[in-house]
Structure formats: structure tokens, C-alpha cells
Amino acid sequence: MSRRCELSGKAVMSGNNVSHANRKTRRKFLPNLCQVTLISDALGRQVSLRISAHALRSVEHNGGLDPFLLKAADAQLSSRALKLKRAVEKAQTAAA
Description:
The chain is α+β, with helices and mostly antiparallel strands. It is 34% helix and 29% strand. The strands form 2 sheets. Strands 1-2 form a two-stranded antiparallel ribbon. The chain is elongated.
């Protein structure tokens, strides 16, 4: 399982530890990933995703998983999230 957020695309970044003596050693900055279960209103089921804490706040701010997915760009979503987005779009067009 990769260290990448399924909704926002946040991934591992690299940088330096800098000591008081100004010595630089390489390090990794890991995203704050959480395993969460979100409810899709359009699909009527729960979806388990591995997302960053920042993406979880964005989902709540947008009013839930379905509005967030509809607003999100396809390039930043994982393949699983992209399939979920297509299913939500299909369910909403069928309901309308």
C-alpha cells in the first residue's frame, strides 16, 4: 500500500534535517494518513478509504464524500476514488 492520499494525492516528500551546526542529512516527510470509513449518500453504502487528515477536513467542509468527489479533479484522485466518482455521477443522473 503506497503512502499516498486517495482523495487529495498528498504523498511522501523529501527534505533535509538541519542540525545546529548546519549539517544537512536527508529525511522523509510522511503524510498524515488515516484509515476512515465515509458514507456515500448517492450510493447508499459505506466506503473505506486511506486519506490524509487534511483531505478529511476538506470532505467535511464540502458537505460529505459525494460533493467532494464531484468537485475534485480527476488527476489528483486514485484509481479507486475515480471509480467511486464515476459511480456517484451515474447514481445522481439516474436519480434525477
